[in-house]
Design brief:
alpha/beta, Rossmann fold, Tumour Suppressor Smad4, 2 domains, 6-stranded parallel sheet, 6-stranded antiparallel sheet, globular
């Protein structure tokens, strides 16, 4: 490894984590890069570069924060060679791989090629004359006072289903444990290449979500009875749409890659983060060999 890039949470105290990276890098003659606006909060020896240059120059991006910081790091790594290591600061981060005390060991393991890479699907959405990219989800969301989200879903150019709801969410498997999950969507392994369409608080008789092939084109058409809707991209408002507007979406496999060191599996993280519990009808433990 010749260079590592830092992506910092905008508010959480990352001084200890940054110091751990800098100390490790100094012992290995690894250059540490960062975005000047983020580094200005710290007194450190990292080299300031633009966000685009950070993605191009770094051999590894180190995300210091929570899942939001991790998503931003993945966008910086989109289409670049650098994988992303998630370091949890404070709250339990679903996408994070290590905590701060484990950071030097994790960096040494990566430098020694003792890790695996987990590809992550992105979804690109065309909004007017621009394209936006999400690693969690793109959602069209009811604006308070402006009426429901009444949206037709077209797949591969054909009418499929229409929803009247508070929101219609198009999620990646990464985003299956975020907004889509809270709206009743399925938990989906990141190894699956698919897009999940989930209505939030649907008002229509048909209230089920759908799982679509990543190879299918997907169009959301805002129908005449819909209100004005906010378009949220990974939780941030990217614009607004009105009746008659269309949003074209397409999945893009392996847009970014996440470092995994093998400490936990996706299913272990999902069970812990989402506090999944078993049915009350199932005992907490079963004797070995029992037939449930």
């Amino acid at each position: 490894m010749h260079s590592a890039g830092l992506v910092l949470h905008p508010r959480r105290d990352s001084a200890a984590a940054v110091a751990a990276v800098l100390d490790w890098a100094a012992s290995r003659q690894v250059e540490v890069l960062g975005i000047p606006e983020e580094l200005s909060r710290l007194s450190c020896a990292a080299v300031g570069v633009s966000p685009a240059e950070l993605g191009r120059r770094a051999d590894l991006l180190v995300s210091l924060g929570g899942d939001g910081t991790m998503l931003r790091a993945m966008r910086l790594a989109d289409g670049q060679r650098a994988p992303v290591l998630g370091v949890n600061l404070g709250k339990l981060g679903f996408l994070a791989e290590v905590d701060v005390p484990d950071l030097p060991g994790a960096l040494s393991a990566i430098d020694g090629h003792q890790f695996t890479l987990e590809p992550r699907l992105a979804v690109d959405a065309v909004l007017g004359d621009r394209t936006v990219t999400a690693f969690n989800d793109v959602a069209v969301v009811r604006v308070p006072g402006d009426g429901s989200a009444v949206v037709a879903v077209r797949v591969a150019g054909h009418d499929f289903v229409s929803y009247a709801a508070d929101a219609v969410i198009v999620a990646t498997p990464t985003g299956s444990t975020a907004y889509s999950f809270s709206a009743g969507g399925p938990i989906t392994s990141p190894a699956v290449e698919a897009l999940l369409v989930t209505p939030a608080a649907p008002h229509s008789a048909y209230s089920r979500g759908v799982v679509l092939s990543v190879h299918d084109t997907l169009t959301l058409e805002i129908l005449p009875t819909s209100g004005r809707l906010a378009v949220e991209v990974d939780g941030e408002v990217a614009g607004y749409v009105v009746p008659g507007d269309r949003i074209e979406l397409r999945g893009r496999p392996a847009a970014a890659r996440v470092v995994r060191l093998g400490a936990t599996t996706f299913y272990q993280r999902a069970r812990r983060k989402l506090r999944l519990t078993d049915s009350a009808e199932i005992p907490a433990s079963w004797p070995e060999g029992s037939d449930i």
